[in-house]
Amino acid sequence: xxxxxxxxxxxxxxxxxxxxxxxxxxxxxxxxxxxxxxxxxxxxxxxxxxxxxxxxxxxxxxxxxxxxxxxxxxxxxxxxxxxxxxxxxxxxxxxxxxxxxxxxxxxxxxxxxxxxxxxxxxxxxxxxxxxxxxxxxxxx
Length: 140
Fold this sequence. Notes:
The chain is built from five helices and six strands; from the N terminus they run E-E-E-E-H-H-H-E-H-E-H.
């Protein structure tokens, strides 16, 4: 899936796929795509944007939210969202999710940084080794 920013789903309501699990951290969050087994590390600004898509949001709403958080216009939001879209983490939102779109409150101490996402190099099943793998020497 390759997203052309000129043809981005700016008004289409999208949500995180149900098999994408998010865990918030002090400095952002980690997403695990249970389908592909890839991990994605997000900074705090990226996590704030992704939370909008836990129910449903559009790219336009995400841009407006970023501006309300203090993001300079075009501060990497489109690139960040298009990368998540290209990774296949979004799906078209169900009608009931659109009706329940939450409003996120901005912490007064929140400092906006350009949102980032880093995908791990290999899927989880290639990173984890089995204790029963005959190619791994046994401890003596």
